[in-house]
Specification:
The complex is a heterodimer of chains A (124) and B (170).
Chain A: E1 12-14, E2 17-19, E3 25-26, H1 40-48, E4 51-56, H2 63-74, H3 78-91, E5 93-99, H4 101-113, E6 118-122
Antiparallel strand pairs in A: 1-2, 2-3, 4-5, 4-6
Chain B: E1 2-6, E2 9-13, H1 17-24, H2 26-29, H3 36-42, H4 52-81, E3 95-98, H5 103-121, H6 125-128, H7 139-162
Antiparallel strand pairs in B: 1-2, 2-3
The chains are: A alpha+beta (124), B mainly alpha (170).
Chain lengths: 124, 170
């Protein structure tokens, strides 16, 4: 896992050419016309899937507070937020979200900002 | 103590000295300093199986941001609590006004304080759910009362934020 700040938007200079966020390779002017084979980004995304955001039970945090945090962080409707909150309360944990690592890291960070016990787990 | 909503702000009035003192203690109670268990709870691990490098990066990049976030919240609350300073009025006439824009800071500071107190005292789940325990018995009982009192304030603020309350002062 890497918690380093991610570079947001824009293009990333790479080997004298440009790589766009959509992974379109733009060769530099006058470059040798060797076909560039770039596969690492797609492979990385595939390897990244799926990670899950898990919230663990904590007897101190109020149930209404936990439910509010789920609504705010994940944009869940109240019913869904309460369902997850009850799952945390009764089962000790609930998987709130799963998907790419970077976004999962961001969610965990936000949940820690609200003082919930949240962890990031790789689905095995 | 009366607690109600005046326009968009929250108002706590008719404060007795005991509860006013508990309110004053929120910022200090939220500090985990000198208590590793409380520090661990406020800055918990981002993953159950946290590799050395990942945890070091989290500590380096995320923890300072969280510290700033928590500190800003307690500073906001400390500023609001200055309304309780001075002794020209009896407590019964004192009113603490919490601006609506400070509600999130109060929720955070109250939560920090509850978590820190609970971690320092190692309260069990059974103790935390025992709302009828007297605060008179011991320092531990007083701390438990503090956790429950702060929880009550959190509940009230949450109800107001969700618009579930009909507790207008007017």
């Amino acid at each position: 896992m890497s918690w380093r700040p991610q570079r947001r938007g824009g293009e990333v200079a790479f080997n004298g050419g440009l790589r766009t966020p959509g992974d379109v390779w733009i060769a530099p002017l006058g470059a040798v016309q060797e076909p560039a084979v770039e596969q690492d980004t797609r492979t990385k995304v595939e390897l990244d899937l799926p990670w899950q955001v898990v919230v663990h039970n904590d007897p101190v945090n109020l149930m209404t507070y936990v439910s509010m945090v789920f609504q705010r962080v994940f944009g869940y409707p109240r019913e869904k937020a309460e369902k997850h909150m009850m799952e945390v309360h009764q089962n000790g944990r609930s998987i709130l979200w799963s998907g790419v690592r970077e976004r999962a890291e961001l969610y965990v960070q936000q949940l820690h900002g609200y003082l919930l016990l949240a962890t990031l787990e790789k689905v095995t | 103590m009366e607690i109600c909503r005046r326009k968009d702000d929250l108002e706590i009035s008719e404060l007795d000295p005991f509860l006013a003192e508990l309110l004053r203690q929120i910022p200090a109670s939220a500090s985990p300093e000198g208590a590793p268990a409380a520090e661990d709870r406020l800055f918990s691990r981002p993953a159950a199986a946290c590799e050395l490098e990942s945890c070091a990066e989290w500590k380096l990049y995320v923890e300072p941001e969280l510290r700033r976030l928590f500190q800003t919240a307690t500073e906001t609350v400390a500023t609001d609590l200055k309304q309780l300073n001075g002794n020209e009025k009896p407590f019964a006439n004192r009113t603490l006004c919490i601006p609506a824009g400070h509600a999130d800071a109060w929720l955070s500071a109250l939560n920090q304080a509850r978590l820190v107190i609970a971690a320092k005292n190692e309260f069990t789940e059974g103790e935390l759910y025992d709302q009828y325990r007297s605060p008179i018995g011991s320092r531990r009982d007083l701390s438990l009362f503090q956790v429950n009192f702060y929880g009550f304030l959190q509940e009230f603020i949450l109800r107001e934020l969700n618009g579930f309350s009909d507790s207008s002062c007017d």
